[in-house]
Amino acid sequence: MEQTMELTTDQFIRDFEQTFNEQQQTLLQNATPTELFLALAHTIRQYYTPMWLERNESLSARQEKIAYYFSIEFLPGRMLETNLLNLGILDTVKEGFTQLGLDFTAVKNAEHDMALGNGGLGRLAAAFMDSLATTGYAGFGNGLRYKYGLFKQRIVDGYQVELPDAWFGSLGNVWETRKDHDAVNVRFFGNVYMADAGEGKLKPVYSNAQVLRAVPYDVPQLGYKNGVVNNLRLWDVEIPEEYELNYPTIADRRRVEDITAVLYPDDSTEEGKKLRLMQEYFMTSAGLQTIVKSYLKMGLPLEKIYEKVSVHINDTHPAVAPAEFMRILIDDYGMEWDAAWNATTKVMSYTNHTILSEALEKWSTGLFSFVLPRVFQIIVEIDNRYMAQMGAQGADYARVENTRIVRNGQVHMAHLAIIGGHSVNGVAQIHTELLKEDTLRDFYALTPEKFNNKTNGIVQRRWTQIAAPVLSQTIDKWIGFEWRNDIHALRALNDVVDNPRAQNDFWEVKQLAKKRLADYIEETTGVHVSTDAIFDVQVKRLHAYKRQLLNVMHIIKLYWDIKDNPEGDFTPRVFIFGAKAAPGYHFAKSIIKVINELANLINNDPEIGDKLKVVFLENYRVSLAELIIPAANVSEQISLASKEASGTSNMKFMMTGAVTMATLDGANIEIRDEVGEENIVIFGMTKDEVYHHYETHDYNARYLYDTDPVLHRVINTFVDGTIPRCQSEGSEIFDALVTYNDEYFLLEDFQSYVAAQARVSALYRDRERWMHMSMMNIANSDKFTSDDTIRQYAEEIWHLSLPHAGRHRAA
Ligand code: AZC
């Protein structure tokens, strides 16, 4: 049901001018883009505020069940255009700006990305917020209000340099509202002992605990043209007034503020241990406390809280939730253990985002019991009861031992999330299969009914209507507007994929997007790239398993091909990289350095010319992705099979007409199933072949290096001085690939990758064939809408019903 705000351009101009005058007290013509952005954001706030109030009232009046998505990361990027699009007033506002003689693009670019996430996991959480509002489900987010988001990346002399992302500093977050009345206290440290509470009961008594105040800031999440506003709640830390004497110096206060100061810039390893654990507990405890309070306002029995509340644990970071929920129910509200446990397991569910074991958090029992003494007691009790119950059921002892929570001096957070909940899901079919047969196989054997798959999705509106407006208009032209409201209508494009005029239109669209990106490349790097070349893109976090290095090896091979035969027939390519490396991930940073030096070598060689260019775009982030992705001809999704849980950028590239160069990993497999073998380029080992190597230990990288002359020459290029200024980085790479036996099997996949790339070049030269492939990708991308993914979560895991959207209009 479509519901847009009724707003004329004139009305908008009046509202905007009034807000601007009240706020900025200068002339429109003198205003900076930032001042205009602030005034525009405040105008929009006035539009959605009544809808937000009405939404909250109607949810509580109807006693609607609510799902709370707990995540340590949310990565929405910019919100302005999304909010306008979802209110249905994007065109009106653009028109208003034109009439006022103002540059909308400059104003939109003045918004700083909200980068409270590292990569896929955080972006998915933000996508789910949009899709929950769009589908109309009552799903709220719960996270942290970091002052500094993911670091800003600069490239200096080819090296990554990290700068703080002070997104917050200058303007604050224009979208948020502080909710002082919902503040709660969170306790850390100290001693806990049990004292007599009368009636034969015990209660915990805390001494010397540190008490901190958690204050929520709510960020509205607007549904697409339906008047629905959900809530993303981000917690900030403060010192409660009654404890101020404990923090006499600024340094003392800073230590507290650190809890919400920075997002950990690492998506795969636990670090900064104590502070990270405090962050996780802080947002989890604060969130759960307020959830219980607002449930109780309905006057319903606490034992039945699962009928109105679901809590989703996004990866292991909020996995303390089942234990904290038990603590609240038992200690704060006096519930009995069994009733509390019954409620807890029905409330909690968990998503796993990776099989890399370093990302499955474990805490030493020493640290954990020091920071969270009472929660630790509860976890030990949960663990003991789990053992006893499994033992009573006659479960296999080794399995039970492998799945227990406290083991070998460590608290296993994934185990707590699984035992304390009713659902575990992976994020693509192959990933869920791997969880069942490998990573979590003992859990699967014991409780198979908990396991299910939910393949990731993307907010198609951002990647088409916002990031690719011309593409969107061209889709309108060929199949009408329906797809903008119902993405499945995109399938009508299948009828025109071989129509020469349509092909021509979509070719032109891609050329325009490439031109836009080429201008940006020239402006930011000084490198001129031709839009006649294939734009071949790999943008994602820098990680060995994602194999950016395999891409680099192929580029080196092409470099030698041209040098050997400068007059040869060659399909020009521009290789575009964007990638942040975790600051402590030395090897990843070496790869960045090598890419940049290789780029210098190639881009400045007159003999190479326009045949080959390599660009590394610094500070990859959501807003840059919006520029890059629609301009890609080739989408590099080349992780070692089994290692990429799903991937989501692969879906964005597909939807905007890139052809995927893919291993059979993550969601690539499901992309293949949608577009058909002929419209994707597959190469490399399968997951079973990878696992075969693991089982037989038969992999020998040095043998491949010694016996394949092409590979030999490519690998030597890292160390023989061809690429200047990266001696030590080059030899690290050599060692990883040869001396240490190539953990991610790049050498084995190399020839198949090279052959697949040659296929791409040939296909691209056949424009009809290429446009067929490209358009088949767009036409069949609807499966990957996060709207459908979230419907599955809502129905199958959270058991939500669909509240009717109200009759919302602007004030
Ligand atoms: C990512 C996965 O690596 C990626 O494959 C997946 O698409 C994405 O989550 C969303 O599910 N994981 C992370 O970003 N971080 C961690 C700790 O897994």
From TrEMBL:
<dbReference type="InterPro" id="IPR011833">
    <property type="entry name" value="Glycg_phsphrylas"/>
</dbReference>
<protein>
    <recommendedName>
        <fullName>Alpha-1,4 glucan phosphorylase</fullName>
        <ecNumber>2.4.1.1</ecNumber>
    </recommendedName>
</protein>
<keyword id="KW-0119">Carbohydrate metabolism</keyword>
<dbReference type="GO" id="GO:0005737">
    <property type="term" value="C:cytoplasm"/>
</dbReference>
<dbReference type="GO" id="GO:0005980">
    <property type="term" value="P:glycogen catabolic process"/>
</dbReference>
<keyword id="KW-0328">Glycosyltransferase</keyword>
<dbReference type="InterPro" id="IPR000811">
    <property type="entry name" value="Glyco_trans_35"/>
</dbReference>
<comment type="similarity">
    <text>Belongs to the glycogen phosphorylase family.</text>
</comment>
<keyword id="KW-0021">Allosteric enzyme</keyword>
<comment type="function">
    <text>Allosteric enzyme that catalyzes the rate-limiting step in glycogen catabolism, the phosphorolytic cleavage of glycogen to produce glucose-1-phosphate, and plays a central role in maintaining cellular and organismal glucose homeostasis.</text>
</comment>
<dbReference type="Pfam" id="PF00343">
    <property type="entry name" value="Phosphorylase"/>
</dbReference>
<dbReference type="GO" id="GO:0030170">
    <property type="term" value="F:pyridoxal phosphate binding"/>
</dbReference>
<keyword id="KW-0663">Pyridoxal phosphate</keyword>
<feature type="modified residue" description="N6-(pyridoxal phosphate)lysine">
    <location>
        <position position="652"/>
    </location>
</feature>
<comment type="function">
    <text>Phosphorylase is an important allosteric enzyme in carbohydrate metabolism. Enzymes from different sources differ in their regulatory mechanisms and in their natural substrates. However, all known phosphorylases share catalytic and structural properties.</text>
</comment>
<dbReference type="GO" id="GO:0008184">
    <property type="term" value="F:glycogen phosphorylase activity"/>
</dbReference>
<keyword id="KW-0808">Transferase</keyword>
